[in-house]
Amino acid sequence: MKILFDQGTPAPLKEFLPAHDVSTAYELGWSTLKNGELLSAAESHGFEVFITTDTNLRYQQNLIQRKVSLVVLSTTSWPRIKPNVSEIIDAVNKSASNSFIEVNIPFND
Fold this sequence. Notes:
Elements (H helix, E strand, L loop, with lengths): L1 E4 L15 E4 L10 H10 L4 E4 L4 H4 L8 E5 L4 H4 L3 H10 L5 E4 L6
Parallel strand pairs: 1-2, 1-3, 3-4, 4-5
């Protein structure tokens, strides 16, 4: 599966998705694109899943017409995300065209 990480998605997460082709918006020179432009670029380049930490994305964009699946993480904090990687992998594996999955990352005590 071809996956795109948004700016706030921690890059170390890539290591936990070895079966997938993962790129970051930064690596592709897309770090200055706004959400709608970024989603359009992702779709036109064949990305199937877009992983972001922008929890407001669903309210800012009309997602009905989109082909790319969205996986939204509730934080940018790698120390909080790392213990919950299995939930993110499950969300990626369950994603289907035009789906929206939120992964709520709890605060570590």
